[in-house]
Specification:
Elements: H1 6-10, H2 30-55, H3 61-68, H4 74-101, H5 105-123, H6 132-146, H7 150-159, H8 163-191, E1 199-201, E2 206-208, H9 213-232, E3 245-246, E4 258-259, H10 267-299, H11 303-335, H12 337-354, E5 365-366, H13 380-389, E6 402-403, H14 417-446, H15 452-480, H16 482-503, H17 510-513
Parallel strand pairs: 3-4, 5-6
Antiparallel strand pairs: 1-2
Helix pairs in contact: 2-7, 2-8, 2-9, 4-5, 4-6, 4-7, 4-15, 5-6, 5-9, 7-15, 8-11, 8-14, 10-11, 10-14, 10-15, 10-16, 11-12, 11-14, 12-14, 12-16, 15-16
Amino acid sequence: MASLGSEAEREPLLGPGSPGSREWDVIETQEHYKSRWRSIRILYLTMFLSSVGFSIVIMSIWPYLQKIDHTADASFLGWVIASYSLGQMVSSPLFGLWSNYRPRKEPLIVSIFISVAANCLYAYVHVPAAHNKYYMLVARGLVGFGAGNVAVVRSYIAGATSLQERTSAMANTSTCQALGFILGPVFQTCFALIGEEGLTWDTIKLQVNMYTAPVLLGAFLGILNIILILFLLREHRVDDSGRQCKSVNSQEENTDELQIPEGSIDQVAVVATNILFFVVLLIFAIFETILTPLTMDMYAWTQKQAVLYDGIILAVFGVEAVLVFMGVKLLSKKIGERAILLGGLMVVWVGFFILLPWGHQFPKVQWQDLHNSSIPNTTFGEIILDLWTSPREDHSEQPVGCPIEQAWCLYTPVIHMAQFLTAAVLIGTGYPACSVMSYTLYSKVLGPKPQGIYMGWLSTSGSAARILGPVFISHVYTYLGPRWAFSLVCGIVVLTILLMGAVYRRLIAFSVRYGWVQE
């Protein structure tokens, strides 16, 4: 983790005669320099642990839910998974607003403590005599509520870096987030060795098994994170040129430092960037949701094959994202963030366009469903439902292919494997580039003023996309098929590209807009 910020840290902040210095010659002290980057690295870790908290149990939620409450069905599983994003959507603006007026340690520590408590609740949802599924729903919602601190993390990093450092620091933040999503399921797999029974501590009614051990680890890491923030995190704020600013919510900076400059934020650029970020997160949510049902329908994969192969695809997707995050740090210095964001959207459009079915070869049609003749397996939740409710069945005897209940299976050409893999690579390249560039540009548009509430709204946009994306794509895909689904996605991306073109000139840094720093 420590090496992620090394390149940005080596870049000097400000020297004599630098643009925007207003005849000031302010050199950052070595002590302040080390403290600032130590604090940023702690927040890299916070972002990593927040992502791990989401992904470490995602593959085991359904079997644990059925184990503790036999009344839970696949639709309730959807609510449990969505509760994380709902919690984060509600809390992000609240924590962001809090961080604008008080030391940012406060919302960070409180939010992480909520996540720790929620993980402990998750480990005890088996104890109540009834309504256990609702306790799990509350636990996952509270974990998401605690994850609203992503707004505080991005706000802090945006305020503690100069324009020269910003893109690199934001890319490092995204890298840590991506690594958390990748490694979370790996940790879950390791804990599977404990088994369903595991160990029981009767005195405190604690069961340590393959379902509870991951959240207990998450709680322990959260406590360590709180300790690091409490003792090592310091309030730092620099302006776009890199000069230290007197923060409105900090008493730790010297009173003779530069005050935050006045100026109005371009609200058109703010709204446009929130829309751009929403669409970018929507794209990923759509791809992640459609992946399993699409591959089962197109390639006649069994449920076990789909879970295995698509899991590998998502893991490769994550590794690709990390490489892209590292690459855009260098590319942005040559062509700028706006060009990368626009190019990333175009790459994503090409990826979804390639997914459009064509030709005269059709998928294998599933003429009967041995488990349910009226409801097709078209969502990830239903696949996991069937996989875990019948673990001893011979899945080789299951009907495979495109369910006849989906009428489009009879007339929609198959999406060839080469098409699918090419599209996955393109989407896996465009999405992470768009993601990091959108909130990097957003932080620069906002300028050196406290960004907590604005970052909160950005996180809310992303959470809303993760909730609406699966609902949208599942219904369109089930009833109209991949041709309509991907055509509509292409249309959404085209509209987003047009929006990007319309506001392209406005997506500039706050200090550049007012002429304090040269672009």
